[in-house]
Amino acid sequence: MLNSSKISNFIPPAQKATSMPVRLFSVTFVMISLMPLLLGGCVTIYNPATEKKEIVLIDTEAEVSLGKDMDRQIRNELKILKDPQRQSRLDYIGTRIANFCDRRDLAYQFAIIKDKEFNAFSIPGGFVYVNSGLIDAATVDELACVLGHEIGHIAARHSVKKLQASLGYQIIMNIVMGTGSKKTVSDALNIVFNLTSLGYSRKDELLADKLAVRYARKAGFNPYGMLTFFQKLKKEAESKGPNFNLVFLSSHPPIEERIKNAEKEIALYPVTPKKP
What we know:
Elements: E1 43-47, E2 52-56, H1 60-77, H2 84-98, E3 109-113, E4 120-123, E5 127-131, H3 132-137, H4 140-155, H5 158-166, H6 169-177, H7 182-197, H8 202-218, H9 225-240, H10 247-250, H11 255-268
Parallel strand pairs: 3-5
Antiparallel strand pairs: 1-2, 4-5
């Protein structure tokens, strides 16, 4: 999720300065989040995005199933814009970035949220959402970097790992398989929404920025788009005043730290390859 914080974080995925409404759903058994992980189906994999070995409780099939459930709820909650021209631009850039990311076992899907604020967010399973306001304001290279950031979160399995740590294997499988009472599954899914809409850690955000630079460059876009986009975010936040909450900036590291982080990554790859 692209964020930063008062001007430290962009606009959250939703509403007011956010793409995906950060509304706290009414959940009757929040204690689920305190349940220990059930390690029955865990495997250890090497994640090239994080360059680490990681324990995975949710395999790709289960993640996609979970993502589809979340996507249906998002489409019920938010206005999805049907604009062939914008969608074509988004799909072209997004697919190009996805072809060069560290995780290609997913069929990435891109949707436009009708919202003027600058924001984008992603959920498990390869689903990426971008506000129409951001699409209209961003250049091709900037949009490529924004999509690279969101795809970076997916490649690094950031949202999946948050769910694993908070819910546990059995609860997640109940959601994926649709087992248990309808209310239990619904409540658990609401918890999933809350967890994925609260943003990521500073470490996760900085990694997603680095991956955005890396993926954009590999795909033939100019990674400096990450820096110019941050400047636009900063200007937008400043123009709205200190009380304006830009999620892209609010839950993320300070914008200046993100800029320096991106500059270091860009310096590693000074020449942008030609488009294949």
